[in-house]
Amino acid sequence: MQPPTDPKNPRKSSPPIPEMVGATSAPFYIGPGVTQISLPMHPPTGPALLRDLKERVVTLQFENVTSDKAAPNFKVYLNVPPGDDPERHPELFAETLATFGLVESSDPLGEHGGAGKTFKLGVTALFGLLTAKKDWDSQNLRVTFVPGYWDAPVPRVKIGRVSLYFS
Amino acid sequence: MSSVITYPRVPTGVTVQYFFWLHPEWWSVALCWVAWAVMLLHSWQYAGHGVHHRMSFAQELIYWMWMAAAMMLPFAIDAVRLTAARSLWERRHRAMAGFLTGFFAPWLLLGIAAAGLRELSWTHSYVAPALGFLAAALWQRTSIHRRAFNACYRTQPLAPLGWQADRDCVRFGGTIGAACVRSCWPLMLACAFTGHSLIAMMGGMAVGAAERWPYRPRTRAMLAATLALASYYAVLAV
């Protein structure tokens, strides 16, 4: 059965198509301590334009996350002011990267040739909060990683790319 | 009492645009169909010649590439689509073109070797494809093949803009293409040795489909189909 259609704007009422609006250009490492990276953003030019800012579903994607050692989970925060302790900004907490199975998925002889794990985090609510606070920079997104508790030295984890999708 | 819920029809233009937005890889799929049409025509024209059909080096290479597009590209369509999905909206088609350039590069290298081999007279006998399919059946049981098969599902990060984005798309395509060549080279060489016979190509495609499309590769079906092709050409050889 077809979804209900808004007769005034049939494009808008179609199921959303994700559009990538920003990504890092090179792999980077996270590990012990806080790591902050910057994500250059580009204005949407495709289907994301059809939806109002308030209607957008925002997804943060972490691609090709690999490590040859077991690692703790990492907390992810968005737009923490540079130099600030992310733990003091619980309202900017986005999600947790769960590293279960990271070593197995990084094995070049494994089922996906060692491509690693890919995570999709829904950050629509946080996007709404940041835009409401006028703390959303349409050209730049800061992503901060904080390792969770680990009873051994925290190993380095490689992240192939972080990308942001509007749909 | 019955109730009928009606929704207004979505205009055709919107449906078409939505389809092309959702399936940016449509022209890669079209390329597969065109490649099959070219190979069908080729098979129909020269079916009577069988393995004895001789072409120039350039013709051999051209038909090799059409055969690779027909038989191997369908198995890389997911990667083509992923390349588009992981690119900025206005770069999607350029990114897919970059991926395909990288994907076909390893096939071109193997095609040069195959076209060179087709210059030798022994490759124009039924023994050559029979041995080729037998080698393909044995190759499917090796750990090198399994690793190559796994590498066909590998993904790589793509830079969003600039020459780095083009480089990454070509490199991603090259990685998948090289894995695809490592996985399927004996099967494709055997198909080339048949003079691009329709039976061999469709059989080879079925073997590839049994490996790629189910959740787990149907190894017994693959072995049976490959050995059946080897037996068919062995019978023709005696």
Protein model, in words:
The complex is a heterodimer of chains A (167) and B (238). Chain A has 167 residues and is mostly beta strands. Helices cover 8% and strands 34% of the residues of chain A. Chain A has one domain (19-166): Jelly Rolls (Sandwich). Chain A is built from two helices and nine strands; from the N terminus they run E-E-E-E-E-E-H-E-H-E-E. In chain A, strands 1, 2, 4, 7 and 9 form a five-stranded antiparallel sheet that branches. In chain A, strands 3-8-5-6 form a four-stranded antiparallel sheet, with no helix packed on it. Chain A starts with 18 loop residues before the first strand and ends with a strand. Chain B has 238 residues and is mainly α. Chain B has one domain (24-237). Chain B contains ten helices and no strands.
Topology, element by element:
The complex is a heterodimer of chains A (167) and B (238).
Chain A: E1 19-23, E2 28-30, E3 35-40, E4 58-66, E5 74-78, E6 93-97, H1 102-105, E7 117-122, H2 124-132, E8 140-147, E9 157-166
Antiparallel strand pairs in A: 1-9, 2-9, 3-8, 4-7, 4-9, 5-6, 5-8
Chain B: H1 12-22, H2 26-46, H3 57-71, H4 77-85, H5 92-117, H6 127-139, H7 143-151, H8 162-193, H9 198-212, H10 219-237
Main attributes?
heterodimer, A: about 170 residues, mainly beta, Jelly Rolls, five-stranded antiparallel sheet, four-stranded antiparallel sheet, 9 strands, B: about 240 residues, mainly alpha, 10 helices, globular
